[in-house]
Structures are given as C-alpha cells and as structure tokens.
Amino acid sequence: MTENIDxxxxxxxxxxxxxxxxxxxxxxxxxxPEEAEVDIYVGLEHIDASDxxxxxxxxxxxxxxxxxxxxxxxxxxGKRRAYQRKAAIVDFDGICSAHAFVFRAxxxxxxxxxxxxxxxxxxxxxxxxxxxxxxxxxTINWGDLKQQEFLLPPKDQQAKLAELLWAMDEVxxxxxxxxxxxxxxxDIFFEKLISESLGKKIPLSKILIQKKxxxxxxxxxxxxxxxxxxxxxxxxxNHYSNTExxxxxxxxxxxxxxxxxxxxxxxxxxxxxxxxxxxxxxxLIYDTKLVSKEYILYHLHSRKFIDYxxxxxxxxxxxxxxxxxxxxxxILIPENEEEFILKMNKFLEAEDSAQFKxxxxxxxxxxxxxxxx
Length: 373
What we know:
This protein has 373 residues and is an alpha+beta fold. 33% of the residues lie in helices and 20% in strands. It is built from nine helices and 21 strands. It has helices at 20-23, 115-119, 122-131, 142-145, 155-196, 293-300, 303-312, 323-327, 337-372, and strands at residues 16-19, 24-26, 30-31, 41-42, 67-70, 75-78, 87-89, 94-96, 100-105, 149-152, 199-203, 208-211, 214-215, 223-225, 241-242, 250-253, 258-261, 270-272, 277-279, 283-288, 330-334. The strands form six sheets. The protein has a five-stranded mixed sheet with strand order 13-16-19-14-15, with no helix packed on it. A hairpin with an 8-residue loop joins strand 17 and strand 18 (270-272). Helix 5 (155-196) packs antiparallel against helix 9 (337-372).
C-alpha cells in the first residue's frame, strides 16, 4: 500500500506550497432553515473534537436564521473557538451552523480523501488558533485564512497516504463499534440488576446534595473543567485546561465530587472528579447521601435516565435541565449496593480496555498526520 513511500524518511523536496484558497473552496450558499428543503442540521455542538466523523445531527426546525448549505464530501470546520479542533466530513445533504466554514477540496491540488486529515494536522489547527481574532469567542476570518500557505505532497503520493490514513480510521471505527456494543450490553444488564434487586424507590432530590461553592476571578486553582473536557458516556476525565484565560465565575470542584452537565442532556456527560479544579457553571456539582456517588453515576449514564432528561429539557437550540428536573427522577435504593457496583464495574473494565486500543490507534494516526503535514 505504501511501498513507494518511506514514512520514516519523507523527502519533501518535491512537495509544493499552496495558499489555502488554492487548496479548498469556501462554500458560502446561505439558506433559511425553513426553506432549505433538507432534513438535517449540524451545529458545532454535533461535532466532536479531533473527529472527522459527524456522529450526531439535528433538524432544521431546531434553529432559526441563515445557515450554510452543505453537500456530501464537504467538510464542516468550526471557525469559532478553533482550539476545539472541530472539522468533520459531510455525508448528507443538509445545512450547518453559520459559525462554521464549509470547505470543498480542490481536487487539482489535494485528494478529497486526504483533505480532512490535513485539516486535523497540528500545523493547520495551530495556525487557525494563531489567526483567530476576538476575546471570549475567537473567530477565524476568511480573508486571513485564504492567504495562509501550506506544504503538500505530490498528487501521486496523496492517494497512498490517504489509503493508509483511512485504513487506520477503519480500525478506530471498529473499536468504537465494540464500545457501543459494550455500552448497550451494560445498559441491558443494569436494568436487569435493578429489576432483580430488593429495595425501595426514592427521588434523586432525597439523595443529591447540591454544592454551590463558587470561584471568582482571579481563580486560585490552576485546572479548569469545561464541557469540552468531558466525553459523552465517560465516568472520569483526565482532561482540563489552564485557568489563566478563564474570566468568568466558576464552580469549585473537589476530587470525588459528582459532576453532571445540565446543558444538552442527550450528550450524556457525567463524571466523578479525580482532581481539584474549577468548572463551567453548566456543571451541577453534587455530594450524595444514602447511596454512593458511583451508584448514582451508573443511573445518570443509564438509557432510561438519558431519555428522561432529554424529554424534560427546556430550550430549543441548547436545551438544558435543572436540579429540580433531575431531582424528580426516581431510583432504587438497593440492599446490595456494593455487589451491584462490583458487577457493573466489569463492564467499565472491558470498555476501558477497548478505549485504550482506540486511543493507541488514534495516537498513531495523529503522529502520521503530523509527520505528513
């Protein structure tokens, strides 16, 4: 597949430099959602960081105002807060957020199959951060982006490089499918355990103790947890950013606190903190009584709870839930909580093992992308 390319000794003497406006076309067709005649809307909230695939979608009725038209093969790139590294391939006819660029690769310069990986290179992403302007919500201007120059491999090498990167992507996608299956099995087993357990049901309002301690600027802790640092469906996070650029009031989070995202509850973001930090106020911070935080966390990640909060969310574009809404949800207080958690933890161990393989594949893929670009 790559017999003519030595990946460990790339000679770039034959590579050429192009301005970005030569590499890709910016698609600027704007439509109103109600007049778009499509069924799919993608906002930046539907795109995960450092992922070339769109795994969630909305509908045009979710939004108002002018949106960008996009077509299969285009790439949606988040021009606002470029440090979030959002760039994903379109595989549908639809519309997307006006806070994005819609790019279409110039096939005379770069293979469309290689283009999304180029956008995810550190060189490109770091450049986007450098040219962004603005304070709280830095944005990229097309006038600045189109003049940026990048070194690209010859067309006769691009197809082989793209083939390799897509083969690695397939390995990652297979791993994600394994985790999806494990999560489905875990949820079924969870409901089975609940149905077989003895105990009484009580609302979460009698279990959750909301912690409201706030941190003011300048913040005294150096770690900040935003919603972007919490992966959907995960029970922990190791991610955070520095607090120096955080200019708003935040929550104080202590190691061991239960944290739940009240914004877009369908995203399934709930963790137990493993370090002291401050956080976005979109997180609800809890202690618990009667049962452990670990036990509650399994409920917060259960399909039934996610369906419940998703149905109760208020607001359209960015639905959210409140502590009151969460508190109305009833759970079983089991007589054998410790045994319950031990059984459920086996699923997390299997998911962690599968996730480790995915992370290794992603690291290898990222290393190759940065080696190329």
